[in-house]
Design a protein that fits this description.
This protein is mainly alpha-helical. About 60% of the residues lie in helices and about 0% in strands. It folds into five domains: about 5-135 and about 170-260 and about 425-610, Sodium/glucose cotransporter (Up-down Bundle); about 135-170, no CATH class; about 260-295, no CATH class; about 310-390, no CATH class; about 660-805, no CATH class. The protein has 30 helices and eight strands. The chain has a two-stranded parallel ribbon with strand order 1-6. It has a two-stranded antiparallel sheet with strand order 2-3. The longest helix is centred in the N-terminal third of the chain and has 38 residues, at about 95-130.
């Protein structure tokens, strides 16, 4: 919602002060060639749609398809365990099914709570923004009410001058949003949303949940259409058209982009931070440094990147003087250095010109609201002293000669300078986070798509599920992203702030401090409703982008805020509804106490995440829950393929069989519902034998397929068995040798792969002999991950000659028959009650 502005703008431009001082543009993303700023703008909108478009909906549609088939076609409960029935049969009814449903419920809960935890921050900030819209809270009104003169031709955060000596500038700051109360406010917002979600869930799917969803969508569409018609309509329509073409051209390329070469930079990272395969303290940088080979370069060899000594209004050269002034006031040296350094990186409460040296009088007195901050009065005095409006951006290739700045040691990564690589961490913190987030939402969004798709065909579900959301994403991001980029460009031109567009950066410290305009030009521009949006908090950017529309602006801002609230309510109530559905084994109307329980649980978890106090925790929880559920989704692909083959009546699978034991029988204590041809003790013995002596399973299976001496069966079987056992032993020995001999483990895993291939060959041959359905890739995956159970399966199949093997869909057919009879009985009861 609010990311319609914030996300494209993030990829388009960021404050250089975020990373410029440490020499790394971590937000500089280049997925394709960007010869001009226009190309970067187009890529910015594309990247947002890439994250929210087709790729984001793959997990949802996958779950929806499997769920719809097993629920509406086969009559099974609407749970994730039922979705696995085409793949694992009756095991879905057992302990493994319980684990799958538990994981699904946890994933749904934490996925929704991540949204609530992140969203509550925007909602809290939005309260202050809406308060400031009131006429009595306008800066000019507050200034005049305080006895001052409102003048935009001033420098500093405040535009109020000539205040009486003892007067203080009145504010409309909400007390419950202060630092000491913000957490309590966020908790309150979470529980208000939870209460609304609870009421929505209690009223049912077709009343509360659907109604909230329709209202939220309608509010968003109304705002989008108003700004589309109120602004430069041809421009926005052009953005839509070319964004569609850009997306179609590059979505396949970017979808397969793994940033392989950018991530080589991890090889040059410090000890223990190499994230590539084989990470250890002896990474490439450490080895080179130990050998006396430098892996860093120093200024002035860092190319044309901005020199932090002369970058921005508050220059790095005044840190020592500023820290000394704070120490003189009683602050500890370490804290003083940290305070002034932070002011230099993020230009503090007020900006001061380059080349000036603050003293004790320039800082607020301890105990006040402006304690240890640069005072507006001092800022004004400095600017009136004749200093220029803009600081020279001295690059490293030049000698810094401005004001009190001095050349200083500066290190930058050689690979960034030499190769122009963009961020090595972008994919982890954006694409991977997003996809993990989508995966964590897959159960409840997939269930909803399935629920509303009853009576549709598979083709209709795919077309509607993929293309409708992607088309809406193109419209939303084109309109709001296009407006954000337009406003950013207008502000940069008006303020004569030339961006470093090649690195997606612009200097905010000239005109903004803490998201507030501090120069006359920036203040006058803001009065007209235009800002360098990049320099403002991302939570409020969407409200600022609609400011140029006069009297309509306030209405649009209120609509956006209300829509945001309802969107969070719909997310919470939908998640609670699906948790109810799964925890009640698919009941369409779960008990009311259970509905309340899941709503309260989500509110409590979201409160705990917010209490942790770090956004990283909110991001991490999605990734942590998304990882195991990714494995579930990968296996759902196999389940979907099998379910569709049954639905279309493919003879190859309908006429085939399964092995007479299954890889997952261990989850049922080797007593599966479908039965077993051998006792538990023999099955367990076969698993242990497969674990320690896989060669015997290979020998047994090959001997079954070549039993006569005429075919050299005995000799061939022995060769295969001995080879498999030798590969297994060599794998273990070489893994142990890794302690002393580096890279021995590499040879070990190669031999393990050879053993896997040999075992795969045996399993494929066994399937062909007994008409067991499957494919070589299935066999290889099973042999790679479950080799002891594969060995046991092959051994028992060979020793029993396939006795007791069932038809491939025997479990499914039995379940469908039971469900059909149950539905028929239910209809008879209804008919009798109506007749009576």
């Amino acid at each position: 919602y609010y990311l319609g502005v914030a996300e494209p703008l993030y990829f388009y431009r960021q404050p250089a002060s975020w990373k410029g001082y440490v020499g790394a543009y971590d937000y500089d993303v280049k997925k394709v060639a960007l010869p001009t700023d226009a190309h970067r703008a187009q890529q910015a909108i594309f990247m947002a749609i890439y994250h929210w478009g087709i790729h984001g909906w793959v997990p949802y549609i996958l779950v929806a398809l499997v769920c719809a088939i097993v629920s509406f076609r086969w009559g099974m409960p609407m749970t994730i365990r039922s979705c696995f029935f085409p793949l694992i049969g009756n095991h879905a009814y057992g302990f493994l099914g319980d684990l799958i449903d538990a994981l699904s419920i946890s994933t749904t809960t934490f996925g929704v709570c991540t949204s609530l935890g992140l969203g509550v921050q925007q909602l809290a900030r939005g309260l202050q923004f809406l308060r400031d819209l009131q006429p009595e809270c306008q800066p000019k009104t507050l200034c005049e009410a305080s006895g001052g003169t409102y003048d935009l031709n001033t420098y500093g955060r405040s535009s109020c001058t000539n205040l009486p000596v003892d007067a203080q500038l009145k504010t409309c700051k909400l007390s419950y949003l202060s630092d000491e109360h913000i957490k309590d406010t966020q908790y309150t917002i979470i529980w208000i949303l939870t209460l609304c979600a609870t009421m929505s869930v209690l009223t049912g799917l077709n009343k509360g949940i659907v109604t909230f969803a329709k209202i939220a969508f309608s509010l968003g569409m109304i705002v989008m259409m108003i700004v589309l018609l109120s602004d430069n309509t041809p421009y926005l329509l052009n953005v839509m058209v070319q964004t569609t073409g850009y997306y179609l051209q590059y979505v396949l390329l970017v979808g397969f982009d793994c940033e392989a070469f950018q991530q080589l930079s991890f090889e040059f990272a410090g000890p223990n931070v190499n994230l590539l395969w084989g990470s250890d303290p002896t990474n490439l940088r450490q080895k080179l440094m130990d050998a006396g080979v430098p892996t860093l370069v120093s200024s002035p060899d860092c190319g044309n990147r901005p020199n932090p000594c002369s970058f921005g209004i508050i220059s790095m050269g005044i840190i020592a003087q500023g820290a000394a002034a704070l120490v003189a006031k009683g602050m500890g040296p370490a804290q003083a250095n940290a305070t002034v350094s932070l002011a230099a990186l993020h230009p503090g409460a007020s900006g001061i010109p380059c080349g000036t040296i603050p003293d004790d009088s320039d800082f607020g007195q301890s105990g006040g609201d402006d304690a240890n901050m640069l005072l507006d009065a001092s800022t004004k005095d400095y600017w009136n002293g004749g200093f220029p409006d803009f600081c020279p951006k001295t690059p490293f290739v030049d000698v810094p000669t401005w004001g009190s700045c001095e050349a200083h040691a500066y290190l930058c990564d050689a690979q960034d300078l030499y190769f122009g690589d963009t961020s090595k961490s972008f994919m982890d913190w954006w694409t991977i986070f997003y996809w993990a987030w989508w995966i964590s939402w897959a159960p409840f969004v997939g269930f909803f798509v399935a629920k509303i798709s009853k009576g549709r065909t598979v083709r209709e579900l795919i077309l509607g599920g993929f293309f409708a959301p992607t088309l809406f994403a193109i419209l939303w991001f084109s309109v709001f992203g296009g407006l954000a980029i337009k406003m950013e460009r207008i502000a940069e031109l008006a303020l004569q702030e030339r961006p470093d567009w090649e690195h997606a950066a612009v200097d905010c410290s000239e005109h903004y401090s803490g998201g507030v305009p501090i120069t006359p030009n920036a203040k006058k521009l803001a009065a007209e409703g235009y800002y360098m949006l990049t320099c403002l908090p991302k939570d409020t950017q969407i409200y600022h982008v609609v400011e140029p529309y006069g009297l309509v602006s306030g209405f649009l801002q209120v609509m956006l805020y209300v829509g945001l609230i309802i969107y969070f309510v719909t997310s919470s109530d939908s998640g609670s509804y699906v948790d109810d559905l799964q925890s009640s084994s698919g009941l369409s109307e779960p008990p009311i106490p259970q509905k309340v329980f899941w709503c309260v649980t989500e509110g409590a978890v979201a409160t705990g995440l917010v209490a942790s106090g770090v956004e990283k925790a909110l991001r991490a929880i999605s990734i942590v829950m998304g990882l195991p559920f990714t494995i579930v989704l990968c296996h759902l692909v196999l389940a979907l393929y099998r379910a569709l083959k049954k639905e279309v009546g493919d003879a190859d699978i309908l006429e085939s069989k399964r092995f007479n034991t299954q890889l997952l029988d261990i989850f049922e204590g080797f007593k599966p519902m479908s039965g077993s041809p051998v006792p538990v003790s023999k099955h367990l013995k076969a698993v242990v034998t497969g674990l320690l002596c896989p060669g015997y399973a290979v020998y047994a299976s090959m001997h079954r397929m070549h039993p006569t001496s005429k075919d050299c069966g005995m000799r061939e079987s022995l060769v295969y068995g001995v080879l498999a056992q030798l590969l297994y032993i060599a794998w273990i020995v070489l893994m142990i040798c890794e302690v002393k001999f580096e890279y021995a483990s590499s040879i070990a895993w190669l031999l393990y792969l050879f053993k896997t291939i040999l075992l795969t060959y045996c399993r494929t041959a066994m399937r062909n002999k007994y008409n067991i359905w499957g494919c070589t890739l299935d066999d290889m995956w099973a042999c790679l991950v479950w080799y002891p159970f594969v060995c046991a399966q092959l051994q028992i199949q060979a020793e029993t000659d396939g006795e007791g093997a069932q038809a491939y869909f025997a479990d499914v057919d039995a379940a469908i028959l039971v469900n059909t009879r149950s539905e028929a009985a239910k209809e008879n009861r209804v008919a009798k009650s109506v007749a009576q």
